[in-house]
Structure formats: C-alpha cells, structure tokens
Amino acid sequence: MDERRTVKVSKYLSKHLRHQPERIGLTLDEGGWVELDTLIAAAAVHGFRFTREELDQVVAANDKQRFAIEGTRIRASQGHSIDVDLGLPPATPPPYLYHGTVARNLDAIRRDGLKPMSRHDVHLSPDRETATRVGARRGRPVVLSVDSGAMHRDGHVFHVSANGVWLTKAVPPEYLRFPESR
C-alpha cells in the first residue's frame, strides 16, 4: 500500500474511532473498541472500502501507534472527543513531560494552562523531539516543559496510553516552563 493510501485510511480511522463513529453507524463499547469486521463493513457501506490486510498495515506502520488491535477488535489509543474509558491505570510520570504548541496559543496557555479542549485529556510527550513534531503540525513549534513530577506530588493524576502519550485532565500554568524569548 502506498503512503497516500496509508494516510487516507489512517485519517479515516481516526475520524471514526476517535470522534464520529455514528457517522458510519458504528457503536463503540465503553472502552472504545469495535469489531474489525463491523468497522470494515460499515466503512464499505458508506463508500470507503479497505481490506483487513490494509487495516493491519496501517495499524502496524503508524509511527504514533494511534490504534490498537486486540484479537478481533480495534480502537484508537487516545485522543477521543467522544466518551470512552480507556481503562488506563494511574501512572507515575517522569519528572518532566513536554507539550508542543505554536506561538499564537501561548498567551492563553500562560493565563489558563493546558486544557483538553475538545478531547478528554491534555496530551503530553515523553521527550522534546516528539513534542516538537506534535507542535509542528500547526506551524512553527514551541515546546513547553511540564513539571509533571511536582504535579504528581500535588495530587494530579496521570495515565500513559499504549503508544506512550501521557494524559492528564489539565496542566495549571504554575507547572509550565516556557522557552526563553529570542
């Protein structure tokens, strides 16, 4: 499968497993899972055909490991705007995590901290490189350091998804470190 097709199938999966399953008649279970055959059939009925082999390739090749397959089921690893319980246990974060954004968001972040916006949790990266890639999707990236160790000591709960993304409900501004202005 070529790169364009891989991206197209991946975006389709993200849209329907994270945000709008009802658009193609899917009902996810409480953990966000759906049967693979049900997904493939629903997509085909709505004009987007792909094979199980293509699906397996997209899941395996996705650099961010956005999807997980267990047995005959699939789900998005995180990033849902719909109500799902991923069943992730609380986890102790490393002392610092990182968040990639762009300059136009900095004033609001300085004032309000990081909020989940349309998602259930704030997404944090384990390293600066990953956060840089995340921020670059929206323009020139700015990487913020999150004092996750202090947050954890102060009672904030963290979870880590199957693909290594750290999740928390919000990051108050006092736990953020902004890069020096140039």
UniProtKB/TrEMBL annotation:
Pfam families with a match to the protein in the record: PTS_2-RNA (PF01885)
GO biological process, one term: tRNA splicing, via endonucleolytic cleavage and ligation
EC class (word): transferase
One function term, GO molecular function aspect: NAD+ poly-ADP-ribosyltransferase activity
Its EC number(s): 2.7.1.-
Keywords (A to Z) from UniProt: NAD, Transferase
InterPro entries per UniProt: Ptrans_KptA/Tpt1, RNA_2'-PTrans_C, RNA_2'-PTrans_KptA, RNA_2'-PTrans_N
NCBIfam families: PRK00819.1-4
Family membership noted in the UniProt record: Belongs to the KptA/TPT1 family.
Function of the protein: Removes the 2'-phosphate from RNA via an intermediate in which the phosphate is ADP-ribosylated by NAD followed by a presumed transesterification to release the RNA and generate ADP-ribose 1''-2''-cyclic phosphate (APPR>P). May function as an ADP-ribosylase.
Name of the protein this chain belongs to: Probable RNA 2'-phosphotransferase
Organism: Streptomyces curacoi
